[in-house]
């Protein structure tokens, strides 16, 4: 049976799943029918693979989404078409295939960089946080289309190796944080184009730390214009 939420005037909804049965979790979320007044949604511990196709007409006011500890989740596409979404946080979703797209060889994303035409248009997004997406090897190049983005955090993405040059198109980006990405090899050269960038914070990224050291690091010329820079080798566990 559908949960009786559609008629409620809820603005915030937090869902925590403890079900071992994947089918039960899938069915519950599918029939949830959240109300159109919803502005904040948090989903934690869900065992399904794909979020329901909640359309724009159903969640027109949703602006803040947190998805955490959804170990089998591969797809967050239903949130990409929401017109007013400003903050999207994804944490510890190890199987996440960013935006469930395919590369030119037909392989599912699984960390492969994809072109801008396949990146969902989330023009309103201001804050994006990706944490514990272990399959991620590169951000999709289409991230450059997120023209309203002001804060980008990438945390504990153990297999992340590269960032796309399209990051240089994020003209509104003011803060960039990269924590615990030990395989990340370098910053994109286009970071020097980010004139609005005020804060660059890097922790536990040994390859980046070496490249960003003043004055001889290979990436130092790219970031010297940023007012606040901090590089840490050992820190608390984020």
TrEMBL record:
A family per Pfam: LRR_R13L1-DRL21
Sequence ranges assigned to domain R13L1/DRL21-like LRR repeat region in this UniProt record: 2-93
Record-annotated Disease resistance R13L4/SHOC-2-like LRR domain positions: 128-204
SUPFAM superfamilies according to UniProt: RNI-like
InterPro entries, alphabetized: LRR_dom_sf, LRR_R13L1-DRL21, LRR_R13L4/SHOC2-like
This protein's UniProt keywords: Leucine-rich repeat, Plant defense, Repeat
Swiss-Prot/TrEMBL GO biological process terms: defense response
Protein name from the UniProt record: Adenylate cyclase
Organism lineage: Eukaryota, Viridiplantae, Streptophyta, Embryophyta, Tracheophyta
